[in-house]
Amino acid sequence: MMMILGIPAPLLFGQLLLGVVNGAFYALMSLGLAIIFGMLNIVNFAHGALFMLGAFTAWGLLNYAGIGYWWALLLAPLIVGAFGVLLERLFISKLYKLDHLYGLLLTFGLALILEGLVRNYYGSSGLPYRIPSQLQGAQNLGFMIMPNYRGWVVLAAIVMCVITWLVIEKTSIGAKLRAATENAPLVQSFGINVPLMITLTYGAGVALAAFAGVLAAPIYSVNPNMGANFIIVVFAVVVIGGMGSILGSIVTGFGLGIVEGLTRVFYPEGSATVIFVVMVIVLLARPAGLFGRAH
Amino acid sequence: MADAMLKVTNLESWYGESHILHGVDFEVREGEVVTLLGRNGAGKTTTMKSIMGLVGRRAGSIRFKGEEIVGLRPDLVARRGIALCPEERGIFASLDVTENLMLPPRIAEGGLDIERIYTLFPNLKERANSPGTKLSGGEQQMLAIARILRTGARLLLLDEPTEGLAPVIVQQIGRTIREIKALGFTVLLVEQNFRFAATVADRHYVMEHGKVIDMIPNAELERSMDKLHEYLGV
Ligand SMILES: Nc1ncnc2c1ncn2[C@@H]1O[C@H](COP(=O)(O)OP(=O)(O)OP(=O)(O)O)[C@@H](O)[C@H]1O
Ligand SMILES: [Mg+2]
Description:
Chain A is mostly helical. Chain A has helices spanning 9-40, 47-65, 69-90, 100-122, 148-170, 172-189, 194-216, 228-241, 246-266, 274-285, and strands at 3-4, 7-8, 138-140, 145-147.
């Protein structure tokens, strides 16, 4: 068997793949958080719950309406995104004139309510969601075995991150978004409906979380806590990447997934904490984060 | 006499609890260049922002083309055909020069096309792909003016466009203002420098402590110098 640094290659690459898969979720989630933070100036603590709702919506579409994975990948983000629009209009928009802390508390409360409701109806043991038939099986790459679905998750996340990045950096809608992030009143005084932009931005960020939720449904069991378990790490990723930085979220998300995977190989005891250790070091050395602009 | 394009009557404004404008009255007729003069803190910028809908609480009346706009949101004011070039210029750092220029949507016919704007401001064409805030102060000011010429807004609010700029650039901005006046735009201009204002404006309003206290036609500016020195404390 091939060995690398005294580690069997399949183990090393297996953990590396697991790291990249986790990194794909970190990237998608922190990307949504970054977009929302840039525009609304709130830290969306409901993001994990909305990720979970994405997975549950996929499950519900299949079990109540017979709608399978591929359509769910499109529909669940739209449905959960529309729900996010409602949340923004009904609750979050009332808080823009107050301190950021209130937005954080509100979205934290929303997360608890959403998770509680889902737990009430579906229990917390987790519901199964099958990998779509086209993506079952695995490829033998020689140095490792790669399950098809994990490869797909990484590919889908990369494509979605690139599309989001292109929209923000290269289109006129993206230019409006960037400008409004810098100076919303001025952008509004040019005749652009900024309140509407804010609402749609929240919806889009939420839709990204739901998209990640659908991707996650066949890997993790679909359960009310799947977002909560995960969101704390995602917040660490956001802090490390730099609050609100688009590119920072993507690069840091994947990067930290890989760091976590490698730690699992070389020092398994540290794998649960390594991201937080990195966070502390980055905060001490660069308080604005790796890609953040100091304010 | 035709109705004024912009008629501000008894305008009051507040930032939070602070009462800043205490009943401002003035009017701007179509095709005119009118200045607001006054010392620092007189309320000139607040007046501009109030017209644009950018000040939280307003009372009184602002009529534009005969319609009341005092309670409107900024984007709706803009859609009526008013555009602001703010005192701090408001060039976006994360947008390049072209993106900055193209950011405000066209709200009506009658704006300048991009070729025309590049003829007026050749520097902007050369720097099209630079980040907006990498321009010099003068170039940023030109970009801030150019940006609102495209939109089709016919009333332009320019807040101290010459502040802190070298004399040649001030002259260039003066030429630009005369040129846009010739094109039929209407301009409300805030200025500290009344010698510059005299080269472009038809009439001058003087503000003090949140009120308009005098109006001087440009033709009478020379004769009113003593008065003006006293108003402006120069
Ligand atoms: N955002 C704000 N919050 C509270 N008070 C403000 C705010 N902006 C301005 N003011 C106050 O309102 C008054 C008028 O300010 P304004 O900016 O309108 O003056 P100005 O005539 O434009 O002065 P300058 O010539 O220095 O630009 C000042 O006393 C100022 O301190
Ligand atoms: Mg001012």
